[in-house]
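Exercise 7b. Backbone tokens:
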């Protein structure tokens, strides 16, 4: 009988490639969760200082360098989250579009890139610290970008939110176009499976773009209103910090859906730790 299965060496290479891609995806997802966890801690400290200011328990009468450093780290981690999603988008682009370039999907490549992404995210926010773009907001008891500093506002929006969001959108737009074109080049036997896979990937892409876009939208809208009316929306800074808090929580949950590796790990451990009633075991034995 003719054997249509691929040779053993080919299957071994496919298994090794799949294992590497699986490990890279887990590495990138772990990086995302670490950044979200640290950003969540920083957001919590900002909320605590605001709450202490409301209760008049602790109030900074003078701006301190420690306050500015705290805000610099806060904005740095917000930027790192967006940069991490850019890196994940680049990995998916290389894995699907540029499959011939194995070094672009290597585990060691991304292991070296991740620290660079962290460093780069803080370096692009360093000018705000140097030109005193972070200042104490007396009414909020924290240091943030003040409303009357147009240069710092524009710079922070572009570096933290605007440019990363545009990069993610362009990468996923190119990836979606490639998936739509590649579907037409496959035979009928593979078309249905490929279409279902592409629809799932596109849904995850759209979800990522929507989530990353929504979280920065309130700040952009309020700043546009400020530019035209010259009046700051009530609770502007509270809404800014609240949007970051919602971003951390929502992305932490959404990563499980958009990353099959995480979902499979959770599902595997749930099945592994699932308790089977003794009556079911005895019933199975009696059937045997």
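Sequence design result:
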């Amino acid at each position: 009988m003719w054997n249509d299965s691929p040779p053993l060496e080919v299957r071994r290479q496919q298994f090794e490639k799949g294992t590497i891609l699986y490990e890279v995806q887990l590495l990138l997802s772990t990086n995302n969760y670490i950044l979200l966890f640290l950003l969540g801690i920083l957001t919590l400290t900002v909320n605590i200082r605001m709450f202490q200011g409301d209760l008049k328990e602790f109030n900074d009468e003078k701006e301190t360098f420690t306050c500015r450093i705290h805000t610099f780290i806060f904005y740095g981690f917000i930027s790192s989250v967006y940069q991490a999603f850019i890196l994940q988008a680049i990995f998916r682009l290389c894995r699907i579009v540029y499959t011939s370039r194995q070094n672009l999907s290597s585990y060691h490549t991304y292991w070296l890139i991740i620290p660079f992404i962290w460093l780069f995210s803080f370096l692009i926010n360093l000018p705000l610290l140097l030109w005193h773009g972070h200042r104490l907001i007396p009414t909020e008891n924290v240091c943030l970008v003040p409303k009357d500093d147009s240069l710092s506002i524009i710079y922070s929006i572009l570096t933290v939110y605007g440019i990363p969001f545009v990069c993610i959108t362009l990468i996923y737009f190119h990836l979606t176009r490639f998936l739509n074109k590649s579907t037409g080049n496959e035979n009928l036997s593979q078309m249905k499976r490929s279409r279902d896979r592409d629809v799932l990937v596109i849904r995850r892409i759209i979800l990522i773009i929507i989530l990353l876009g929504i979280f920065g939208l309130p700040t952009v809208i309020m700043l546009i209103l400020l530019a035209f009316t010259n009046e700051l929306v009530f609770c502007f800074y509270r809404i800014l910090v609240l949007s970051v808090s919602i971003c951390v929580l929502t992305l932490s949950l959404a990563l499980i859906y958009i990353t099959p590796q995480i979902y499979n790990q959770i599902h595997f451990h749930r099945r592994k730790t699932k308790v089977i009633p003794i009556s079911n075991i005895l019933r199975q034995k009696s059937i045997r």
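Instructor comment: Residues 278-288 have pLDDT under 50 and may be disordered. The two ends are 34 Å apart (CA to CA).
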